[in-house]
Write the structure tokens for this entry.
Amino acid sequence: MASKNYDHTIDNDRCKGCGLCVTVCPKNVLEISETVNAKGYFPVYRARPDDCIYCTTCCIMCPDVGITIEKTEEEDAPA
Ligand code: SF4
Ligand code: SF4
């Protein structure tokens, strides 16, 4: 389920630009940048952040632990 109560963070300098996360994202959120990072790789970035459903698939797949998703606030309890 989509929620805006999460932060999706890409560690630019950890990313090796392997593209695994791009391939597995079910919403086509991610793309490889055209600008190199400090290690000389082309890192991934969130090209379509509004489409992200915070499914965590990209985090699980990244071999370099380059993506994290953290909860930012509690969702409202049902009335
Ligand atoms: S959390 Fe899911 S929808 Fe969002 S970028 Fe990662 S794989 Fe794509
Ligand atoms: S899977 Fe990890 S290292 Fe590979 S492009 Fe995605 S964030 Fe970068």
About this structure: The mean pLDDT is 92. The beta strands are 6-10, 30-32, 44-46, 67-71.
